[in-house]
Amino acid sequence: MAGFVDKLKPVEPSGSAIIARERAQSDISVDGLSQTLFAGDNYLHRQARILPILTAEPLFDKKQQANLSRPDLFKLALARAKLLRRLKDQHGWDIDDYKLAELLVDDVSPYYLHLHMFVTTIREQASDEQQAHFMPLINAFKIIGAYAQTELGHGSNWNGTLGRTANYAIVVAQLLLPRPGVNAEDEPEYVSQGPHLFVVQVRDLKTHQPLEGVVVGDIGPKYGYATIDNAYMLFDNFRIPHSALLSRYAKVDPETGIYSKPAIPAVVYGTMTYVRSLIVHQSRMGLARAVTIAVRYTSIRRQFKDRDSKDGAERAVLDYPTVQVRVLPLLAATYALHYTGLAMQRIYKDARKEIEGGNFSPLASMHSMSSGLKSFCTNLVADGIETCRRALGGHGYGGASGFTRLYPDYLSRVTVEGDNWMITQQVASYLIKRMGEAAAQSTGADPSHLEIFNALNGRSHLQPCDILKSDVQVVEAFRRRASFLKPWTSLIIQLNKVSHAQSVAMVVEFFHESLSSHEHLSTTTQTALQNLYRLFAYYQMETEGNDFVRSHAISQDQLNALSGRIQELMTLIRPHAVKLVDSWMIPDYLLDSALGRYDGQLYEDLFHRAHRLNPLNKITFNPNYWEDEIVKGSGEGWSSILAKL
Amino acid sequence: MAGFVDKLKPVEPSGSAIIARERAQSDISVDGLSQTLFAGDNYLHRQARILPILTAEPLFDKKQQANLSRPDLFKLALARAKLLRRLKDQHGWDIDDYKLAELLVDDVSPYYLHLHMFVTTIREQASDEQQAHFMPLINAFKIIGAYAQTELGHGSNWNGTLGRTANYAIVVAQLLLPRPGVNAEDEPEYVSQGPHLFVVQVRDLKTHQPLEGVVVGDIGPKYGYATIDNAYMLFDNFRIPHSALLSRYAKVDPETGIYSKPAIPAVVYGTMTYVRSLIVHQSRMGLARAVTIAVRYTSIRRQFKDRDSKDGAERAVLDYPTVQVRVLPLLAATYALHYTGLAMQRIYKDARKEIEGGNFSPLASMHSMSSGLKSFCTNLVADGIETCRRALGGHGYGGASGFTRLYPDYLSRVTVEGDNWMITQQVASYLIKRMGEAAAQSTGADPSHLEIFNALNGRSHLQPCDILKSDVQVVEAFRRRASFLKPWTSLIIQLNKVSHAQSVAMVVEFFHESLSSHEHLSTTTQTALQNLYRLFAYYQMETEGNDFVRSHAISQDQLNALSGRIQELMTLIRPHAVKLVDSWMIPDYLLDSALGRYDGQLYEDLFHRAHRLNPLNKITFNPNYWEDEIVKGSGEGWSSILAKL
């Protein structure tokens, strides 16, 4: 092609120059902030250690993967998964190293379920003897396990890792036992003990063919998640041994057939609580990727001249309030989600300790909290990613945006592990039950973040919270709105709102708590975080303003004032926006985005990807409809493409 | 595989039985309603005539397309486009037949821009001589044209059909002319006359190679739109003849160099108004596909037992208010969008007639109206499609949902032809300008749906509209909210709200107007349409309740009552839901959805697609990480997949 192309330069000021100016205008210390965010975790060191190992491997190169078919993407993902597992051996990575490497490569790995739901279920639900047998096999990947809970026509119906990869699965199934006392010679009558967990071999370890009586396969292309094999599975007269029943809590005596049930039946669903907490913890990263790209791109991208400017220069897109209002509240949300994720993990670990010690009482509140937050956080992130993508205009639709895999993959989260609408009804019923208990005792319950209940009546004389002057009153306003349950519970449709209100109140409270842990940071940084806190809370409040006013959490005047306050906060945050996303320390390799590059060379990269990397540009097509030929000069008609249908 | 698989039957009642019952319980006449909806258009006959021609062609089979790589999808799309064009010759299709066939095949065709923006621009902007030259070439596809308006760093930057297919393009570029009066021997000084339209050959008609001085290519994989070649293009000292300037309105005398400008400069953007009106008109179909799938699936799908039911049967998911509130307002929206699209097309045609007669005055209001409605309707549809998808739970994420191409393709609409946020500012400035004029004249403007202005002050004594009793008062409430501009215009961030309020007021009014055209339909049908109207309006109102109260359009009590009214309406609409989606007459071939099949055989189809059609299930993989082999028994390592990176 024409030689002038290689000499092209973007107009001045270049993206690199602009983003350098952006960084120079803020005195936030990115190192200081990111070390605070990731304190207590080796995340930053880990990432610095692992990243160069990954980028040195051609197999992890992402440049062409959007041009691959789904079958090829799956083959690639399996090859990558194998290589990652080898690197673990080679470099002595621990499990967190390995999971971070997986995250950076950004395939949902064919091994994913093995290292999450399968191993967690064995660890939490298997007896000591079962663990002694399975854990070494799991750790050495001598067996690969999946988790099969749903049935066609119920649940979400897709069991990852099981379609083509796994040879074992946790199977959740009804435990049927002969009715005791029936004469052994009679046809036994079976009684269901409810759903139990079984660990079941489903494929031959040598041939990798399904065992006799098992039909299993991949469900085909999906909205995203091309790299993982979600499965259907059928059993036909398939026998499993007594030892398949995971028997840490539920047991059947092999001699007498006597069944001992778990202390509480819900304990078998512990793995779902684990996964929901994990999803809450991970939600920050999905949104942080989107916001990093959006902030960097919109701070470089110029559009329309500033009438007040003398030089007639165009304004950065991020200087427009219409762009700020879409991107900056989401920047604030990344911080809110981060602290929520940390709190969720802490609470989960504490609860597990209790449960392992035989105290099952935290189960119900954990289940409610993880369900509510899973629903709230994943909705926020899924919608937030798309809001960021749209804020990039046409470029957000292009493959160089970094969104074309991020968004479809993330969308799985709103339905997986309990559909976001459905599970909020569980939260609401938990809250209503607790409220009933509290009312019965004629006493207010413990006002911790897990149990927020106010008096049910006589709210109309309440003074609105002083949200514009006091940060902690903001927390109170969210609590008050969340406790405004009574007029809602008559309508099932509103249960979603109850759960949402409860969850966002927690998120606000966790974010507020974190503010006191920043005292060692510079005043600028502390102020920026405080402004992010207010922006997050005010923005949520304004979005659902009417509910806050109706619940006497805030006054109509305060609600009317929010829009102006939000705009002021955005103006204060704007100069620090680039450094506030830099602090998430997301490497270019993970972003895989021309628009979100750290160095700002976006137009160079956009053109490079289109002009030099796109395989379609190596083909000359024949556009004449009266000629069969598709590829010019091939002389071939469309039979080869027809053969692929 | 095991023989029992072929004998599987879904549990009773089957999907077919359920959907038959759904249809039997409503006495709406689907034929009567659909003929009313598509009256004045041969749409239904056209579809009945064309569909069997398409489904008889193996090239139009959709079963495997989700398994193809992007380069293969493009080849397939070009082959399909050629075949469609041949079928046009063969069957004597007119242009509407051809476009309907394109829509049913559901590829965004590589020829798409040729038949839309290219031909429209020639028709509207070329002189009679230019048309005489180009129109026969265009109609015979002897040349293939595209439309190139944006520049890197400005606009949306992607020009369809140009990447690999087109040999011509409309190029929007600055017209520079020598400053008159400068001595011909001096170096001429150029003066820009602003952007003008040129028709430019960019590829050789024989070799299909770019002409010397042109660099052009496809931008690579995108979020959706895999089947069309969006382009980058560079010119380097590329000369075009005088005849390239489209000169219906703007002319340069080839002898004297004297420039005659168009009566109004905005006339060159007519094609954008055309495309925006087209997008408004087409928006109904995108949403109707999603709602058809969602209503059919959720009426069949069962989940959880009904406590009040004696037989312990599970309830249809669509019987839950939490599902209804997501799906049924969108069902109502399909009707609202349909009537809006019809009105928009009617107004566009009338305006074109005026413009062709030399009266350019409708241009500004057309531009504003088409921009505002494009933004409102495409946001509603894009978000509505995703809401429907999520209402399907895990199955909505699967490839058999019918959403995996629909949603990514539709998302292009929110940024293409003017980013939805950006263009609303044009609407708002138009409204503010008209408001200023109205105020200056000290007189209210014409209160037609294009120009809704009320007095600016003294609203606080207004009586709220009686929205719960009167349908036309609902229209008035939307108008009043839309005219509540003054406190907003100081804040640029609110301009989006102004435009949105104005557009939704129009949509409500168009829908309300249509109610009077249904008098020949049965009472049940008329009542159902009236309920859909109310549901659409009340739902929109409740979503932005605070603005309606603040603008004294409705009272707080009325707002509080809406949630109950919405639920009542949904209960009334529920029994007719299947027939109300049936009336859009969308064939299974277009839906391409196991979940949305007309006959209700969803589980049979889901399993068939997964078990029999998925090519991944023909491959046995080797899951052992210590072995290089990916495909079991191939003995091959990952070198072949690595070679594709």
TrEMBL record, chains A, B:
Record bears the keyword Oxidoreductase: yes
Residue ranges occupied by any Acyl-coenzyme A oxidase N-terminal domain in the UniProt entry: 30-144
UniProt entry keywords in alphabetical sequence: FAD, Fatty acid metabolism, Flavoprotein, Lipid metabolism, Oxidoreductase, Peroxisome
Keyword Lipid metabolism: yes
Positions of the Acyl-CoA oxidase C-alpha1 domain: 269-432
Top-level taxon in the UniProt lineage: Eukaryota
Cofactor(s) required, per the database record: FAD
Residue span, Acyl-CoA oxidase C-terminal domain: 485-628
SUPFAM superfamilies xref list: Acyl-CoA dehydrogenase C-terminal domain-like (SSF47203), Acyl-CoA dehydrogenase NM domain-like (SSF56645)
Pfam families: ACOX, ACOX_C_alpha1, Acyl-CoA_ox_N
Subcellular location: Peroxisome
Listed PANTHER family: ELECTRON TRANSPORT OXIDOREDUCTASE, PEROXISOMAL ACYL-COENZYME A OXIDASE 1
Family of the protein in this entry: Belongs to the acyl-CoA oxidase family.
Protein's UniProt name: Acyl-coenzyme A oxidase
Organism this protein belongs to: Aspergillus granulosus
